[in-house]
């Protein structure tokens, strides 16, 4: 007799319990059904449908060009695969900065049309009203501080943020603001490890680091980066677990050789 294994969904409450128990949170990006299925079945806690899809999937230089419709397409693909992980979706550039009503409408579209479980917004005090309006509608919000890629043209560089005292102080104030606004977690990207540790200790909600040291409550990487699918991209914070670019490149070359030499398909591979 077969027994159906019940898969318990990770929720925002689960993440809060993990922080309380000192259990680290593992988060990765995914943008399509196939990758999300692998990541989810491996036991990841959170899948981020990041606006990094603009770079990884579409080849853009920044995250700015990706649209709300495109984010919903990627998110829906991921949600269909994820049975266990909490699925968080980035609100793309231009879909929430204008006013809080626009932000709410964008968040509602993502939740209704993709089936995702939460949204993520970049920024602190300046977007508090939008965060509160979204949360009031019953939609969980994850914050994002430090290097905020949607503001790349303001920063002018992807280097480490908040090394100067004024910016570090603003980050410490912003993370408190995000907690007070109701965020269930905050991503801290490319900031000094000591600052990330201080910020993590200052709030009761989980922090998820990327290039922010080991004291955050969890970690996130872009799955294509940690799998080695992006050739030549090796920032200090990235641990590459595979070199899929070379392995897949070699497999394609072997396939080409087999086709051209008439080795594929063999008698066993035809009807």
Short description:
The protein folds into 2 domains: 229 residues, Alpha-Beta Barrel (TIM Barrel); 29 residues, no CATH class. Helices cover 42% and strands 13% of the residues. It is built from 11 helices and 8 strands.
Assigned CATH architecture of the largest domain: Alpha-Beta Barrel
Low-pLDDT residue intervals, each spanning 5 or more residues: none
Distance between the amino and carboxyl termini? 36 Å
Q: Please tally the helical runs, counting DSSP H or I stretches of 4 or more residues.
A: 11
Radius of gyration, Cα only, in angstroms?
20 Å
CATH class of the largest domain: Alpha Beta
Oligomer: single chain
Order of helices and strands: HEHEHHEHEHEHHEHEEHH
Mean pLDDT metric: 95
Largest beta sheet, briefly? 8 strands, parallel, barrel
CATH superfamily (homologous) name of the largest domain? Phosphoenolpyruvate-binding domains
Q: What is the CATH topology assignment of the largest domain?
A: TIM Barrel
Q: Which percent band covers the strand fraction?
A: 5-15%
C-alpha geometry:
globular
Our count of domains comes out at 2
> Would you count the extended β strands for me?
8
């Amino acid at each position: 007799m077969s027994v159906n294994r019940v898969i318990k969904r990770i929720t925002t409450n689960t993440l809060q319990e993990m922080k309380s128990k000192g259990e680290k949170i593992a988060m990765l990006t995914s943008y399509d059904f196939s990758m999300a299925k692998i990541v989810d079945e491996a036991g990841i806690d959170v899948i981020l449908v990041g606006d990094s899809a603009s770079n990884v999937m579409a080849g853009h230089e920044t995250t700015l060009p990706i649209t709300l419709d495109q984010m919903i397409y990627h998110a829906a693909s991921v949600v269909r695969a994820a049975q266990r992980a909490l699925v968080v979706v980035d609100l793309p550039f231009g879909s929430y900065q204008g006013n809080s009503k626009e932000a709410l409408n964008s968040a509602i579209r993502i939740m209704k049309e993709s089936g995702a479980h939460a949204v993520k917004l970049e920024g602190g005090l300046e977007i508090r009203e939008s965060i509160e309006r979204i949360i009031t509608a019953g939609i969980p919000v994850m914050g994002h501080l430090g290097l905020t890629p949607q503001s790349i043209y303001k920063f002018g560089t992807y280097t480490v943020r908040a090394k100067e005292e004024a910016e570090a102080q603003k980050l410490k104030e912003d993370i408190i603001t995000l907690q007070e606004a109701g965020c269930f977690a905050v991503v801290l990207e490319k900031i000094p490890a000591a600052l990330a540790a201080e910020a993590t200790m200052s709030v009761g909600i989980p922090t998820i680091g990327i290039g922010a040291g080991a004291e955050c409550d969890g970690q996130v990487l872009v799955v294509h980066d940690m799998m080695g699918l992006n050739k030549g991209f090796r920032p200090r914070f990235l641990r590459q677990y595979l070199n899929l670019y070379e392995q897949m490149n070699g497999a394609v070359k072997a396939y080409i050789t087999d086709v051209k030499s008439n080795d594929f398909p063999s008698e066993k591979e035809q009807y």
